[in-house]
Every structure is written in C-alpha cells, then in structure tokens.
Amino acid sequence: MRLGWDQLKRRVVVTALCIMGIAIGSASIVVALSFGESINHYSRMQMSYYLKSDEITVRSGHGGSESDSGDPNAAKPYELTKAKIDLIRTFPNVKALGTYQTLNNFQFQVDNKRGYINSLYATELETLPDFGYELHQGGPSEQENTIILSYGATMGLFDQQMRQARQIQSPGGNDSPQAAKRLEDQMYIAYPMYQKQIILTPQIYKPNLGMEESGTPFPLRVVGILKKPEGVPDDVVMNQKTAFVSPALGQKLLDAIEQKNGKSSAGSAAKSTSSGTFNEVKIKVDDSSNVKELEQWIKKLKLSVETNLFREERMQSELVIIRLIFGGVGVFILFVASISIIVAMTMSTYQRRRQIGIMKVLGANLRQIRNMFMVESALLGLLGGMTGILLSYWVIWGINIAVMKLAPARPGAQQEILFISPWILPIGLFFAIMTGVLSGIYPAVKASRTDALTAIKRD
Question: Which of 339, 390, 400, 443 is a Cys-bridge partner for 345, taking CB atoms 3.0 to 4.6 Å apart?
Fold first, then answer.
C-alpha cells in the first residue's frame, strides 16, 4: 500500500488523468441509476395516486336485455347485485370492499362563498382509509346528511370580491401582473370548512334548454377533509374537486336528480332493489400479486373487471429500457477509462524496470510485484470512484437548478426533480474499483515477468 501510494504521488499528472477518467465513468453510472430511480419513484408515486395496482374495479357484465325468467325486474345473470357482492367479500385475499355510486356536477355554498364538486361518490365512508384516502381533519360520522370533501374542493372558492377581481383579469382588463399573481395565490388557499354546514345543490344539464338547472338543495355537515396529496402541484389539486357521502344520502341525491329530470322514482326504486345504490364496486387486494387470481374468480360471476396491472407492467418495462440505456453509457465510459489505466500502468512498468529488478534481487517474489501494481490500480479506482461520487452530486445539482430555472416549479409541487438514493453510491464505487483492479491485471503480470539482471544492466 505504501509503495503504491508513493508511486501515485510521484506521477501526479498521469494519476490525475486516470482518476478523472474513472470519475467520469463512475459518475455516469451514478447519474444514470439516479435518472432511472427518480423516474421510477415519481412513476410509482403517480401510479399509487391515480392508478393503484392493488385495486380491482367491478361493474355489471354484458348480456341480454332480460333474465331467463322473462321478468324485466328480476336480477340478470350479468348484473352486479348485493348477493354477488356478499359472495366476493368471502373470496381470499380481499382486504376491503366498497360500493360506489358516481354523481357529477354539484355546486355548494358555505358562508358567503361558492364552490364546485365535479364528482361525488356515494360509498361506505368507513372504508375510505382502506383505499388509501388519508384524512386531514375529522372522519366518518354516523350522523345523517354528512359529507367528506377532498382538499381540492376547499380551494378556489368564490365570493363577490373574488368574482369582481376575476372579471378584471378577463381579456381586456388592465390590472397589473402582481395583482394577477396575488389572485392566483389566493385561489390556492384552502378555505376552512371542517364542521361547517354547506348547501349542496345538484347542477342538472337540460339538453332541450342547452343549459344547467339547479336541483333541490341539501344542507350537509362537513365531517372530514382529505389530506392534500404530497408532491402534487396546487393547480392540479385545485381541479380535483371530489366528495364522499353515505349510500343512503347518495340515494336521496339520485332520487332528487331523477325527479328533476322528470323520471319516475318508482322505476328508480325498482332498480335499486336489485342492484343497490351503486354502479361499481372497488376491491382492495392484500397484495398486487394476487390481483390476477382474484380477477379470474370475479369473471366467473359474469361481471366486468378492470385492473391497472397491465399499465404498471408496461411502465416497468419502459423503465428497464431507460435504465439499460443510461447504464450502458456509463459502462462504455468506464471501459474507455480502463484503457487509459492499462496504458498508464504499462508505461509505468517500462519506466520502473530498474526498481522491479532491484526488488527481485533483494528477494521480492512474483506475487509481491504483482500485488504492488494491483494495489496501485485499485487505489486509482478508489480515488476515481470517490471523485465520481462528488462529481455526480454536482451534476444532479446542476440539472435540478437548470430545470427549475427553465421551468419553475408550480406551487405545491416537489422542488427536487432528480435525487441520488444511498444504495446507488456503493454501486458506483464498486464499478470504479473493479475497473481499476481489472485494468491493472495485465501491467501487473507484465511487471512480474521482468528479468531482474537484464533490467539492471540496461539501466
């Protein structure tokens, strides 16, 4: 070790060039793995929020218009019924099950402000935590006429002052950019609505009139607010205006909407007798590896099944290709760096023939000579790997700064774009040391075969 370190210090220029070659190669591998890891992290984060691979959505299947009995009100073989749902609950690997009825386009009023709900789901509120919905405030209540709002539903509420300011910002307005920025920031502020009463009003579209008409208003109590999604920009969160109510309240809202549309409530009641207040069922599986098996069981009930496994598998295959491309670039650079080490160490062998000859005369064996050169190359790899780790941090930092300057992060979004996971650093260091060791094999063998007397006489 001492001899190898002394030789590296004597040949400063050659040592620096070899270290830089290995540093660039190892930094390329670290950056390549960091690219893949960052993409994988954000893809999984988006998948877990939007497309959950451990969930199954079940709807009614496709079949004839009537059942075998000829009774139009009887349950059809392909229909999603309570009996089938109770049977699915008994299937293995079912962690949680919730029925869902989707209703759209609602307006609500709280205090002197107005807001909107794009999608309202009637479901068993106690099952929300099982499906990954984290509550920021409150929770399900046994009281009637209660509602749980998403965080986005509490953002962007309008009052008279906000409406006037928005009109000023319309085309033709002459307000300053600073005022527009203040208005935008104000839209991203969540209004405190927990435990407040809101007036929920369905907005029913009338095709014959070409406009929306307000339905029967429902006074509801806000008993819960969902947690704001981490890393999602505020402008995206603000557009995710959803809410959850109990199945009983969902049935009341559905009846009120159908009555406003002129449909008979008797027909609606007859339909709800067989299928309940739901149009789909969501199932949380204990592990995503059991989704396919459970999917086959549900299909035997002649129901339509939808999962996100194929999307996740396709995304993972694309990420593997990206990692291979980035990793291949880093390995190629390390290969070029190894050639420079071989050349430098081979030249060092010719320059140090007298030293090798004297060592042999003094009793050094072939193994000791080989180890001296191998240690030198390993030290080059170690120093190059450590320098490469520092270089990779600078590269990642520079990319993050450049991206944030070219495309400023939206409010609420995660500022860090690329990151280096701790497990990547040993891999980069390992490749660097292995490059040095493998590159030193040929010079070490050549040095050990140097004839001592010939080397001394020539010098």
Answer: 443
CA atoms within 13 A on the CB side of 371: 8
Q: Where are the alpha helices (DSSP H) in 114-176?
A: 160-168
Phi, psi angle pair for 387, to nearest 5°: -65, -35
**Token pair of 66 as six digits:** 């009537």
pLDDT digits over 318-363, tens only? 767 777 777 777 677 777 767 777 777 677 666 667 777 777 777 7
CA–CA dist 155, 343 (Å, integer): 65
Query: Kindly report the CA angle at 44 between 43 and 47, in degrees rounded to 5?
Result: 85
Q: Domain ranges in the chain?
A: 2-47+315-458, 54-155+190-307
Whole-angstrom CA distances from 137 to 28, 68, 108 are 46, 50, 19
| Residue tagged 């919730």 (tokens) | 98
Distance CA 100, CA 363 (A): 85
| Region for residue 363 given its phi and psi (left: phi exceeds 0; alpha: psi -120 to 50; beta: otherwise) | left
